[in-house]
Amino acid sequence: MNRPRNYRPRFWLFPFFAAIAALVLGGVVKWLWNAILPPLLGVGIISFWQAVGLLVLCRILFGNFGRGSMGGNHQWNQENRFQGGGEWREKWRNMTDEERAKLKEEWRKRCQK
């Protein structure tokens, strides 16, 4: 990869933008919470710092915001379809119609228990 001569990574900007994003998202969470939940559920309103804390709590409990399932490292093709479970996909492709029907019936029995 050819970089310009005066190219320097600007990693020092990341904390600055992360702090701005946290503040903006905190404001959005506060606004949405106070606009929707008190009239709907009768809960109290929250402050800005409580909204930021709620964001941090969600990050801890649920993982990354929009980066895969629970912070997982999934593979996506160009059409944004999940491409996981390769061995099962290959096994399914190699099954005959009778084997597929038998497998479906087994799973129906397991799910009804």
Would you write up a description of this structure?
The structure is a single chain. By secondary structure, this protein is mainly alpha-helical. It is built from 4 helices and no strands. The chain has helices spanning 13-41, 48-62, 86-93, 97-112. Helix 1 packs across helix 2.
Briefly say what this structure is.
The protein is mainly alpha-helical.
Unreliable sequence segments: none
Distance between the termini: 57 Å
Which structural category do the helix and sheet elements fall into?
mainly alpha
| Number of E strands | 0
Estimated helix fraction: 55-70%
From the structure above, extract its key features.
113 residues; mainly alpha
Write the SSE topology.
Elements: H1 13-41, H2 48-62, H3 86-93, H4 97-112
